[in-house]
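User: Is it possible to get a 3D structure for a protein together with its bound compound? The compound here is dinuclear copper ion. I've pasted both below.
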Amino acid sequence: MISTLFHAPEPAKKYIKDVEGGSWSMPIDASTFGDPIDTLYLFIVAIDVLFFALIVATMVYFAWKYRRRTKFQKTSSITHNGKIEFLWSAIPAVLLIVIFLWGEIDYMKMSVPPGDAIDIRIKGQKWFWTVTYPDHPGVILTDEIIVPEGRPVRLTMTSEDVIHSFYIPAFRVKKDAVPGRYTNIWFQATRVGEYNLFCTEYCGDDHSGMIGVAKVLPWDQFEKALEEAGRLAPNTGESMAGFGRRVFERRGCPVCHSVDGTRLVGPSFKGKYGSQEQLADGTSVTVDDNYIRKSLLEPNAQVVSGFTPQMPSFAGQLNDEQITALVEFIKSVK
Ligand code: CUA
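Assistant: Yes, that's possible. Here is the predicted structure of the complex:
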C-alpha cells in the first residue's frame, strides 16, 4: 500500500518551456485576455506594495517617535480621531469597489463568447484530455488542442469521472471540467506557438501528469493541421505493431500502462501477451486478442487482481483497425 502511495513514475508527458517571452512575474501572453488580466493583477500588486510600504514605514516611525524616554514615563491618555478613522475606512472601501467593478467587467467579457466562435469540445478524465471538433467529425485529439490564431474559440467542457480543471496559463483561461454538466470558456489566441495545458484540480494519482499542449496555428494552416493530427490510420510501409504504438501514444495509454514492466495505475504490457492473468474475481484468463479487445471496450468487466477498476471505455473512440493495431503492439512488447 505504502509503495503505491509513494510510487512516482516519470510523467509520460513533459512540460514545454513556454516561458520565454513572459516577464519575471507573468507567463507569456498569447491571448486577448492577457492584457486586461495582467493589468488588473499588476494594479492590485501595486496597491499591495504601496500600502505595505506605507504601513510598515508609519509603524517604524511611530515606534521611534513614541518610544519611552525615561524609565518612569507614563502613556498619555488616548482618545480617537474621527477624521482619520473615516479615511482609513473610506479609502480601502473605494479601492475594493474599484477592484470589484474592474474584475467584474473583465469577468463578464470572459464569460460571453463572440457569436462567431469556433466550437471545441473538451472531456477530462483520469488522466488525460480528449479534444473533439463538432465541425470536424472524426478528429479526436488526446492531450492536445489545436486552435487558430486571431479567431475566437469556445470550449464546452465536461468530465468523465471526477472534477478536473482546464488551465492554459499563456491564454489566462482556467475552468473546471465537472462530471454531469457542461462548463464553457472562450479565448482568442494572438500568438502562433505551443503552450502548456495543465489540469489544475487534484484528480488522483496522476494529476501531475495530466499535461497537454495547446497549439496555435495561422488560420490558413489550422484546418489542414487538424485533419492531419486527427487522422489516426496506418502510414504506408508501417507495420501494424508500429501503427499500434502510435495509437497507444496518441490516445493517452502511457499514462497508466508502461511497456517496460514498471507498475503504473494499470498493468504493464511487458510480456503480457499470451500470459495467464489473475482476475479480481478469483478467476483467470489468457491475455489474447479477445481479452485485449474486451478490455478496451468494457474495461471493468475483467479487472486484473491487485488493480482498481478505473479505466475508461474506448468504445466508439477506437475503430476496429486501431484496436487490432493495439493488439499487435501489445503482442510485440516482450
Ligand atoms: Cu485532472 Cu488533475
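The chain is about 35% helix and 20% strand. The longest helix spans residues 34-65.
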